[in-house]
Amino acid sequence: MTNLNELIIPAARQGEIEVLQELILRNADVNYCDLKGYTPLIIACYNNQIEAAKLLIAANANLNAADEGENTALMGVSFKGYTSIAELLIKHGADLDLQHGNGGTALMFAAMFGRNEILKLLLESGANKNIRDNKGQDAMELAALQGNEAGLRLLQASGY
Predict the structure, then answer these.
(1) Residue-wise pLDDT tens digits, 106-129
(2) Is the pTM of this model over 0.90?
(3) In this structure, is the dihedral angle defined by the CA atoms of residues 90, 44, 39 and 66, taken in order, positive or negative?
(4) Which of 56, 82, 100, 109 is the S-S candidate for 77 at Cβ 3.0 to 4.6 Å?
């Protein structure tokens, strides 16, 4: 017999809503982790599958679960630039200030990779601008290092 938990991550990756609904109905673990620590919610978010993310959140997926590198779904969408999913995660209470293995936060990812819509959203939602990574750098310094002028202006306008 197939382990239902092993089916939930591929279904989340592909945004297969009907499959996810059936798996949830059959009590598959919405917080199941694969060998890299990915949960269905992390995978759905990393693959821009907003409907799958909504379904998993409604089924009580852990918003703040982290993979083996200590990256959360919010960090992943802040890196990739998926604003709608960032809004969804924040609306449902994702922790804005968790740090991954090197001390980076979702705000730092948004600043560093020029995801300025998400940067603005995180700032407006109360993300801590003063957190520093393991190298001692904060979001402002990371934006400056990457030449993210618009991000620098957003950070400065937020009272940085």
Answers:
(1) 999 999 999 999 999 999 999 999
(2) yes
(3) negative
(4) 82
